[in-house]
Every structure is written in structure tokens, then in C-alpha cells.
Amino acid sequence: MSNSPVFGKAGLIKNLLFLITAFLIKIPAAAGMDETRLNALIIDDDKLTDNLLLQKLAGLGEIESVIIHDASHLTDRGMERLASLPYVRSLQLSNINGQKSDFYARFTLEGFSGALERLSVLEKITFSGIPADFALQSISKNKELKDVYINQTRELSANGTKFLPMLSNIEALHIIEVMDDSLLTNEIFEDIGQCANLTDLFLQPPQAPDLDVTGAVNSLSGLQLTSLVMPEVKITNEAFSRLLEQWPKIKYLGFDHSSLSLESMMALSELQHLTELYLEANSPHNPVLGEILSANSSLKILSIGEGLTDDGMIGLSGIPNLGMLFVQSANVTDIGLMGYAANKPAIRFLLFSDAKFTDFGMASIVNLPQLRSFHALSTTDITDDGIRALEASPALETLFLPNCKNITAQGLEKLIAAGRITRIHINNIDTIID
Fold it and tell me: What is the model's pTM?
């Protein structure tokens, strides 16, 4: 698994939330400022210590949601103070780890889990930077938990997932951005399969070499899943057939499809409730994916990996209600983008991680009537001529070309003067237009 800060083999999925948040949503709190609203406290302080936390929480007994963006200086004592908030239903602790060797010096399992146990009405918890096994054991007594999100983690094994069945109300489990060599095993799937109320599952660790994928799917067969995303699990034809049989109304789906036959891929057209699909592997069938999905009227978000060609890109324009498209293939050129735009699909968000376009391709996106946000992360050759046509774009608000150095201030001024653009990121300079 790549640790690229932008995109790697499975990196596209793990950055979707960041991109949507950063470029489509205006974050309300200024950097370094706390915000209290609707019984929620957001602390954005990279020097937050136990003592400082004590001060910030003074008199806030009725707070229901706490978000701490940097918990790297907290210890058991800070967790103990958090535990004194009796009404907290949602807790987010980000950047907990600090230095890897520092985590276990600051926190004990007894202190950490004891504090969380006192949050008796806690329904949602988000950890960033905490070892997964430690996290899962520490929340095992929080019987009201419904949503568990663990990211930027390490040390995931059945030693931690064996505590999941104790969370009798858990509905959502996300374990993503695993930073070490932790692997998915059949024991882990067996533990997850005992969470009777689980409907939303997102696992990003790679599969163990000896993982029985059909057995893993069978372990989950007792669950009423609406979401199953496992981007690094190489699904087999047998396992995919079992998946379709078990969850014909699944809404969110993702896996490594590189080993699937064309016949199996064609079965995707049967998933008429499918809303989001993440297929990031290099498959010989990626070029015909648009044809396969043309009958999926419910599909709103598609992420597709390497192997997509210009013809395949044009074919994606036939997916009737697709709103967001993420393309990782470097094989898409101006021809593919121009052909896609010529069919005027109702796409609102387009992101290309590896494709490289020129002014000719860039100018064609003016033909996309509902496009609000365009991102081409690897494109370098766009000039003022390429963005000039965008002045007439009917809906474009966000333009993200981080590696383009040939666009001048004068070119940007003309584009901004057209009055539609609200955010531009050019040559790694971010500009927000009031």
C-alpha cells in the first residue's frame, strides 16, 4: 500500500473525504481558534496540553460533541477530564500518536479505556493516530457506540477485533489509512461478522496472502450490509457472486476487481440500488465500465483506477446520474476528456490524479453544464489559453491545478472577473475569492 500524500494504489479513496471537505465545504473555525456551536466544542490547538484542556472544558458540562484536532500532547489525565462531560455523544481525537514511541508513554489501556467507559452515552467516536488494537479494546465497554472510525492507524489484528462483538449496537466500522504491515485475516472477518447490527464496513488494510476471500465474505453473510468497501481485497469471481447474492441492495461498494472476469463485471449492472462504487485496481475491463454501468440510474459517485482509456472515459458519460467522478488512470488524454465533455453529462465534480491534459482538453470542460469543481493533479502544461474558455463555464466554482506553472496572474484575473469561480488552486497556491 502506498503512503503517497496524494494518491497511490489505494490512495484515491482515502482522500475523497479530504478533497470534498477542503474544496466544496467552507470550514467554519479559523486555524488556532476554538468554536462552540450547537452544544459542540471544536478545539484547534497544536499545543493542547492536559492543563489547557482543563481550562477549555471548564463550565461546559452540557457539551454533546467534542472535536480535538491535535491530541498529540494529551495523556491519561486529559482523557480523565474529558470523561467528566456526561452528555458527550460524539468524540473525535485527531493526531493522537505524536511520535510512535511516545504513545504508550502517555496513555495506559486502563486509564484510556476507563475514561471512555465513563462517557456512558457515547454513540460515535473517531480516532486518528491510535493503534487499532488498543482503540478497539479501549472502547469495548461503550455499549451505546454506533459509529467507530479509526484512521492513520497501525497494529491491527484479531487481538483487537475480538472485542468488536461486545459493541452490540455498532452500525458503522471504518478502519483506514493503516500505516504499517497489518493485514486482513479471516479471523478479523469472523469477529466483524458477529456484530449483528453492522451495516457500514470500510476496511483498508491489505489482505493477508492466505486470506480466503470467499470465506471472508461468508463470515459477513449474517449482516445486513448497505456499505462494503475493501479497496485492497482482491475479490474473486466466486466471492463476488456470493456478495451479489447476499447484498443485492447494497449502496456503497469497493474492492480490488483486477481478477474479476468480464462476466462477473457485467453483474454490476444488477445492483440497481448502488450509489457509490470504488474500483481502483488496474483491470482490463475498465474501458467498458461505462457500458456496464449505463443502466445504473442510482449511481452518484464512481472512482476508477488504472487501465481506463480515452474510449473508456467517453463511455463513462453514459452513466445517467453520475455526479462525482474520480479517475486514476494516466491513459486518459485530451481526446478522452473532450469526447466525455461533448456528450454533456450532468457531472458536478471531476478529479484526475494521473492524467495530463493540454489547453485543448482543458477548454472542453466548458461544455459540461453542471460541472462545479475540476481537479487535474498531475497536469502541468495548462496556460492562460487553456483557462480562457472557462470564463464562459456555466457552473464552475472550483479549479484545482496544483502543478501548472504557466498560468499568469493576468489569466487568473480574467477568469475571476467572470464572477463564477470561488476557489482556485494553481501552482500550489490556494486562492479563495469572496
Answer: 0.88
